[in-house]
């Protein structure tokens, strides 16, 4: 594999008949959770969709368990008004809906409101996930869905490879690398499927990641020869070269929450490792040493870094506080074929791919085991969570 192919595919890739996902039984790993009883009335299809979505989304939070005799009771009629009451609080949803899709969205919004009210944390039920379905070496399409696994949408139908989706801060646009031309280039696509080329760069362009303030875009370019890390300013259209590693390839940049640092992958040592770049000074330092390969970094809202690490021939997902060093790192999965972890808005959960499927990972030491979000046939990979 050439270095250019490594760069283009380090972000990674990936169609099939879509079906409603089955109910996934979430097994507790030790943490005590608040029991929520869903006791709503109404038997039409939309009300049933609301109840199913609400139960599933509550169980995914890591804070709640759906069951009888709960400390929190959800009562009322979906579509006409539902109330969550208990533990000294009351949350009401007056959302109306006429079909199952709208009912599921109302249930997600209600879930996030319950999470916020009872835990003070930000929920993730309404935040879409972008991902790839890879059907061949040169054929992969871009999709989105919600964390509950429903309402899957196909955004591209190019019969060409698409890799490395990343959300803009608005959560309404995705930047990804597309092989629509001979050279991989970065495209921007919105939720209607409208697509534009980021810029007609000479050579490859890949790994685009928009800064938290939306002003800049980190990406990998080869227009000056070797693939290097650059920052493009959207207002001026100017690009600034950030690395100069003549005998290595860079990949997978991601921004720190404050926009002052960029984590990226470089194979300077002939094995991919993660580095931190200070944007102001352009100074880089290596932050991973354990593991033969360390790839796919993603920065959480609270400043922790997740990545895929290869140890003993298996891939794990690891998490650490980069400000305190690798001594804070811990593995949050068992060994397997884990790739491309991406943080949720709550700073606790990740989405990652393994064995052609997508899983939500609870990084709390006493949290849930990984949960597969849907079981549709396909080669699902390269997820990115909007936040």
List keywords for this structure.
disordered N terminus, 387 residues, 29 strands, 2 domains, Neuraminidase, 5-stranded mixed β-sheet, 4-stranded antiparallel β-sheet, Rossmann fold, mainly beta
General description of the model:
There is one protein chain. With 387 residues, the chain is mostly beta strands. The protein has two domains: 3-16 and 129-385, Neuraminidase (6 Propeller), CATH 2.120.10.30; 34-119, Rossmann fold. Helices cover 11% and strands 40% of the residues. The protein contains three helices and 29 strands. It has helices spanning 3-10, 45-60, 100-119; strands at residues 34-38, 64-66, 72-77, 81-86, 89-93, 129-136, 139-145, 153-154, 162-167, 173-178, 185-190, 195-197, 205-210, 216-221, 228-233, 239-241, 250-255, 261-266, 273-278, 284-286, 293-299, 305-311, 314-320, 330-331, 339-343, 349-354, 357-362, 371-372, 380-385. The strands form seven sheets. It has a five-stranded mixed β-sheet, with helices on one face. The chain has a four-stranded antiparallel β-sheet with strand order 8-7-6-29, with no helix packed on it. A four-stranded antiparallel β-sheet has the order 9-10-11-12, with helices on one face. α2 runs parallel beside α3 (100-119).
